[in-house]
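Appendix B. One record, verbatim.
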Amino acid sequence: MQMSQQQQAQYDRGITIFSPDGRLFQVEYAKEAVKKGATALGIAYDKGVVLAATRNTGELRVRNPEKVFKVDEHIGIATSGLVADGRTLVEETRNEAQRYMMTYDEEIPTPVLATFVADRCQQFTQVGGVRPYGVSTISGGVKDGNPKVYHTDPSGTLNQYNAVAIGKGGNEATEHLEANWEEEMEEDAAINLAVNALQAGEEDIETENIELAVVDVENNYRRVEPEELEERELGA
């Protein structure tokens, strides 16, 4: 059933109101915000995960907003969409990771943290007076030697992937991942794949515009600086 703009307006102002064809317009608008956000991706390889995203590096800007965040030594999150929403959601995941450690005396598993993010996003789709998070996340981490990558969207949907990309270049980056991801990839190959996939999504992106982090099986979260990515390119 097709609705006129006037009919649609009756439903798109309320987060808790379904349209006659079963849609929540505010959630759909939040997903559109993600499509305009930076391209971000997550890749699971043999002994860890790679999280990466594109960023703008204006000449006058002193500090660029982060898109790839450390949650704990064994887990990180990449975001795409509204930067402020992503930062707030990441702070909540960090607090949840600390609560889990204090309660169970062990590091939070990646699927548990990803489920927390999905549940948090879903709560904001059914409460009046708030709006959905305008951000999608990719959670990547290693627990008990098992690297895992999960994706959540503003509706609270949760999926696990071997590799996934989101944001404005997400479709092209995903096609590159589908064509080139392999089981038992090594770290260097996964990093190169991440860079190439981001550049497939946004053709004008240079290595200085890429934010990338690796979490390995030794529970070691580390950032890979643009200079190191440039050296990898030159040595390729």
